[in-house]
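Working notes for the structural subgroup meeting. M.R. asked for a predicted model of this chain before we commit to crystallization trials. I am recording the input and output together here so anyone reviewing the notebook later can reproduce the run.

Input as submitted:
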Amino acid sequence: MDIFTRNNRSTQDDHFSDLMFGRKAEPELQKEESKVDYMQLMVSVETLMGLYDQYKPAIQKMNPLITKFLKND
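Returned structure, recorded in token form:
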């Protein structure tokens, strides 16, 4: 038995390997492609950018306070 080929062998009764390393995940049968609604994604991104623009002044006012807090460590 060759060292390099014995690890490629898989047996059903290899309880030690299952215990030590867990069972290998069996390949799933062709996963269905995820369907992405790009229009909904773009609407969500637009909403997030609008919220960011709305809260940007508040974030800029809090930034010095946060940096001062972090420097006091």
